[in-house]
Each structure stands twice: as C-alpha cells, then as structure tokens.
C-alpha cells in the first residue's frame, strides 16, 4: 500500500491510497450510462409530443402545428430539422395545463421582455385575435432567456431556434450562455469551429465548468481554483480581467501522456494565438497537470473529453484513477518535475505489486533554496559508464536524469551566485558541482532495501515514448 499526499496551486489537498486489489472507480462511461438510463426512465412516458416549426407567429406559411395541451401535466416539443432531444415543457410544478389550452409557442423579442409565451388560438391565422396563456396567479406563462440558459442542457434546441430567427439577439444569448461555462473543446485549433464561448471568471473564488462530449453535457465534480494561499489556508480568487478559454497544452515529447490544462487570456477565440496564458503570482502559467487529470477520479469528466479529442489515448497509465502521483514503471519513461521544488519524491512500480517511495533531498537546490524555476519533462536512464572511469565508488549510481522538454521557460533566480546546479539544457543530463567540476548527477541510495529493487528496474527493459 502506498499513501501519497499532493498539494499544488489551484486544488484542494487530497490523499489517496493505492492498493493492488482496489475496486475500479466509477468511470465516465458508467456515469453517462447511468444518466442516460435516468433520462430514459424519466422521458419514456405517454406525454404528447409536437414538432415546432418556428417561434415567429408571422411565419404562418410554415404550417406551424397547433398544440392541444389541455389537461396535460407535461409535453415534449422538438424543433423541425434538428436532431437534438425533445424539450420538456410543464405548466406549473404541480399543476396540469388548464382545459381548452390550444395554441402555439412564440418568442417575444422586445427589449423589456425576451421570453417564450403560449398564445391561445385555434389556428396560426387566428394568432392576432388570441390571448396569452395565464398561470394560476394571473401572470402570463413564460420561459425567459435566463431560465433557458440556466438549463441549457434541456433547452438548447429552443435557444438555437431563437438565435437563428433573431440574429440580433445572439449576443444576449451568448452572454447568458457564457455564464454556464460549457467547455466544448480543449483543442486550440477547434475553438472557432466548435463555437467555444469565452469565460469571464474575473474575481471568482472558483469555477465549476460543464463539458460537452458528443453533444452530451456532463457536470464536473470538482471546483477549479486559482491557487491556495499557504499563509491563510484559503484559495485566492482569480485576478481581474480573467477572460478567455480553457485549453490543453500538449507535450511535444509525450503528447498523449503529458500536458497541462491552461487558461488562455484573449478577447475573442479568433485571437487565441495572440493571447497569453493566465499566470500565478510566481510568473509560471496556471495549470492542471496531466498527472492530476489522469490520477484523480474527480477529473473523470475532463479526462473523458481529452480521450474523445485524442489528447489522451488508451491504454491509460497504470496509475490512472488509482493515486495522486505518477508511477515510474521503467527507465526512459517521461514525467514532469518542478525545478522550484527543493526535494523530489519519486514513486516506482517494480513488477506486479512492488511499490517503492523514494525521496531525493536537494535535487534541484542546496540546503534550503533552489536556483531555477520552471516545469520540465525529464526521464531517468542508466548512468553512463564513461563518467565512472577512475572513480572509486562503493556502489555504482543507478540512474541519471535527462531533460527532454521545458513546459515553461527555465529561469535562474536572481542573486544566486554560482549555483552548484548547472543550468538545465534540453537533451542534456542534470549536472551538479562536485569538487569544483560539474558532473552528471547520479542516484545511488544508501539503503539496500531500496537499492536492490531499483537495480532490477534499471536492468529491465526501457520504455521510450
């Protein structure tokens, strides 16, 4: 059993237990199937259904079907020419439509009231002579844009029809829908094609977006935070003028295994490339790492979208939904490290059920300080024998560390002097100063209980991505 604790910017501190025989978590497919079963149970009724041709009463030539909903507790309408699911309509929560309720639905486009009403009439030609349906309190029965936007999953066919028939109101509907914060794609090149709307999350303490996967909306089961204030133990609010879109930044080294969910600041999705990433106070881009997205069950919804768009690929890593840390299963397996972390904790999976938890002190620093900032993709590899020539060592170092990619710029901290850590370079090994010379760093644990199993990992087959 391995217990790991993670605490990173933007997320609640979590703990998780890795057990070999742990039951599998509920997957996205399970959640969607359960939801669909609920919908089938809920919507498989004898309630009448109607085809809606238009919400503009002047279009009588479209032969709009007159709805006779007298005495019905609920009805279903579908929009002509559309494949979306039917929209369920009710009179009041606990009351059926009154007797003699025959007529048509129509949209009121005035500035004072933008909503759908029900006009009582026997035919479309009698529309102007009819009256609007009233509720039991004497007020007109209506469905406002705000209400439909708040229930976008159920009302989006009606909203689409309103936007098509009233293009001048599209901006108002977009504003209402943007508050729903629906993520339709995480691919930067698909933002415009899939109609991704901007999110304005300025000064919010947290965000809980919805994800659209094949036109099905799924609610996320987590809150997204800006970062955690260690002094007060609270989450800081997102800065002012935080307007833009979420997107996934893939690694070039291991694009289907490593990456970061980021937030691009821009005034329009068409200006994505000229925008900039939301940053933390440290200057590093705000992100949710691929490790968190893969390993934490609460991220199953966003993981489902990443799989659907090909940003993640199956089979998922062995630690998916099982722990809050990545497991290193072989040499040359890329993983992410933060140069501003003084100590490194690595978790090795050796064989079927042997887990080794290793803490390496002062890997990127000395005593109490680090010398560089940045997130990097690295790999462990067998220590080069040429650097051992002429050296008298009790034990041979097992691993060296090679830099593969910089996810963020690597910057030297000011006033550090000559650091014992050589500036990282892509494609080169980590070098540390030893007796006045920079040599490749090597990991050689003093404990036999750690050295022996890790030596088996070093002798095993490597994995390259």
The rounded distance between the terminal residues' Cα atoms is 28 Å
Rg over C-alpha atoms, rounded to the nearest angstrom: 29 Å
Unreliable stretches (pLDDT < 50, length at least 5) are: 1-44
Number of helices: 7
Strand count: 31
Structural class comes to alpha+beta
Mean pLDDT: 82
DSSP strand (E) fraction?
25-35%
* Morphology: elongated
Number of domains: 3
Helix content: 10-25%
Sheet of most strands: 5 strands, antiparallel
Task: Describe this entry's structure for a reader.
The chain has 7 helices and 31 strands. It is elongated and about 100 Å long. A hairpin with an 8-residue loop joins β17 (243-250) and β18. Mean pLDDT is 82; it is low at 1-44. Strands 4, 7, 8, 9 and 10 form a 5-stranded antiparallel β-sheet that branches. It folds into 3 domains: 2-35 and 184-308, no CATH class; 45-174, no CATH class; 335-459, no CATH class. With 465 residues, it is α+β, with helices and mostly antiparallel strands.
């Amino acid at each position: 059993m391995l217990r790991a604790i993670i605490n990173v910017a933007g997320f609640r501190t979590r703990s998780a237990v890795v057990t070999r025989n742990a039951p599998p978590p509920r997957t996205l497919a399970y959640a969607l199937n359960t939801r669909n079963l609920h919908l089938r149970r809920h919507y498989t009724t004898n309630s009448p259904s109607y085809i809606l041709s238009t919400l503009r009463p002047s279009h009588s030539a479209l032969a709009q079907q007159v709805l006779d909903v007298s005495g019905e507790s609920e009805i279903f309408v579908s929009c002509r020419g559309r494949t979306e699911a039917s929209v369920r309509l009710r009179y009041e929560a606990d009351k059926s439509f009154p007797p003699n309720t025959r007529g048509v639905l129509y949209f009121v486009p005035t500035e004072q009231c933008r909503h759908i009403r029900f006009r009582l009439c026997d035919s479309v030609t009698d529309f102007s002579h009819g009256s609007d349906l009233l509720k039991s309190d004497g007020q007109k029965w209506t469905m406002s844009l705000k209400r439909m936007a708040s229930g976008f999953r159920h009302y989006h066919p009606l909203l689409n029809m309103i936007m098509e028939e009233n293009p001048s109101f599209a901006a108002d509907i977009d504003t209402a829908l943007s508050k729903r914060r629906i993520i339709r794609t995480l691919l930067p090149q698909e933002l415009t094609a899939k109609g991704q709307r901007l999110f304005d999350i300025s000064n919010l303490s947290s965000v809980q977006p919805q994800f659209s996967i094949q036109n099905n909306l799924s609610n996320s089961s987590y809150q997204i935070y800006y970062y955690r204030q260690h002094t007060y133990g609270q989450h800081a609010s997102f800065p002012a003028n935080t307007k833009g879109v979420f997107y996934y930044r893939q690694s070039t080294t291991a694009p289907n295994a490593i990456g970061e969910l980021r937030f691009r600041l821009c005034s329009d999705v068409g200006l994505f490339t000229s925008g900039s990433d939301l940053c933390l106070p440290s200057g590093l881009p705000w992100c949710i790492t691929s490790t968190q997205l893969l390993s934490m069950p609460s991220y199953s919804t966003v993981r489902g979208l990443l799989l659907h768009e090909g940003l993640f690929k199956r089979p998922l890593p062995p630690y998916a939904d099982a722990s809050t840390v990545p497991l290193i299963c072989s040499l040359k397996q890329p993983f992410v490290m933060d140069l501003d972390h003084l100590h490194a904790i690595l978790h090795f999976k050796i064989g079927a059920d042997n887990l080794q938890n290793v803490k390496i002190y002062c890997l990127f620093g000395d005593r109490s300080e680090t010398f560089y900032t940045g997130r990097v993709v690295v790999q462990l590899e067998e220590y080069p024998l040429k650097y051992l020539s002429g050296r008298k060592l009790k034990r041979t170092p097992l691993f060296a560390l090679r830099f593969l990619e910089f996810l963020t710029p690597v910057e030297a901290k000011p006033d550090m002097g000559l650091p014992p850590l050589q500036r990282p370079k892509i494609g080169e090994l980590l070098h540390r100063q030893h007796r006045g010379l920079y040599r490749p760093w090597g990991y050689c644990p003093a404990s036999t209980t750690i050295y022996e199993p890790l030596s088996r990992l070093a002798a095993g087959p490597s994995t390259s991505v």
